[in-house]
Design a protein that fits this description.
By secondary structure, the protein is of the alpha/beta class. The chain is 41% helix and 14% strand.
Length: 270
């Protein structure tokens, strides 16, 4: 089984946001007109033989760029392929907790994804802490981005040390899924994952050929083989493109199976 730990199905307002100007310069892609059919995302998953994908909402200070209701609708259209991740308003802690509980308990969402760079505050900001406690109570992981920020927002909040390290110390029961490998602080990210049992890394936003060597080496260790999850960051990178060159990593069969799906099945309770 292949599980993609990080995708989003973009809305028109998501794609049109000025923070993505940097990504459009890199890819050369124009902003499409109108809503994008979900079939395009499902076709991209099928192209790569992806069985399940964690599809996330995006909520920032200006409101939802991809709303939880929209994610719930996407999942309802392909429940055998898509699994929802919620996103909430940091400014309203109690409302945020209620929203998370509703999505997990009533709609089967499997985690919370919040992007500190979108709010321009680190994950140690006091507004995150009630959500960490709620994730622990609900038995779902907290998913976030580590490393530099491709969109036009500050990158410093993506440092694994001190931020993820501190959250893992304060909430040892919390599973933290750290997306985007942590570059250029990948060694910090690996060190934090080695240190904390419930900190894992996903490879979203990086093709196989661009994975940092220190992360590949970690994947081949006894503990590291259980700590790295495949992710694409579709539609920024299509899953099939992200997986090209997988054979060149030199993973044994067990490690390969854990990386492609086994670890995600365990972490997200699939």
């Amino acid at each position: 089984m292949i599980v993609d730990a990080w995708i989003q199905h973009p809305t028109a307002r998501f794609l049109a946001h000025d923070m993505l100007d940097s990504l459009r310069r890199w890819t050369g892609e124009a902003i499409p007109e109108g809503e994008i059919p979900l079939k395009l995302t499902l076709d991209a998953l099928a192209e790569a033989d992806v069985d399940r994908a964690l599809i996330a909402a995006w909520h920032g200070p200006a409101g939802p760029l991809i709303a939880n209701d929209e994610v719930a609708r996407f999942v309802a259209q392909a429940p055998d392929r898509l699994v929802g991740l919620a996103s909430v308003d940091l400014r309203r802690p109690m409302r945020a907790i209620q929203e998370l509980r509703h999505r997990v308990a009533d709609e089967g969402f499997k985690g919370l994804r919040q992007l500190p760079w979108l709010w321009e505050v680190p994950p140690t900001d006091r507004r995150f802490y009630p959500l960490y406690a709620a994730c622990v109570e609900l038995g779902v992981p907290f998913c976030t981005q580590v490393g530099h920020t491709g969109p036009l927002r500050p990158s410093e909040v993506g440092r694994p040390i001190p931020y993820i390290d501190q959250v893992a110390i304060d909430f040892p029961e919390l599973t933290i899924v750290c997306g985007h490998v942590g570059y250029p602080w990948t060694e910090e990210m690996v060190a934090v994952a080695r240190k904390h049992p419930n900190v894992v890394i996903d490879t979203s936003a990086y093709t196989t050929k661009r994975l940092p060597p220190e992360l590949i080496a970690y994947m081949k260790t006894g503990s590291g083989r259980h700590k790295v999850l495949f992710g694409s960051n579709h539609p920024m990178i299509r899953p099939a493109h992200a997986l090209q060159g997988l054979d060149d990593l030199g993973l044994d069969d067990e490690t390969r199976a854990l990386y492609l799906g086994g670890n995600a099945q365990r972490v997200f309770g699939l």
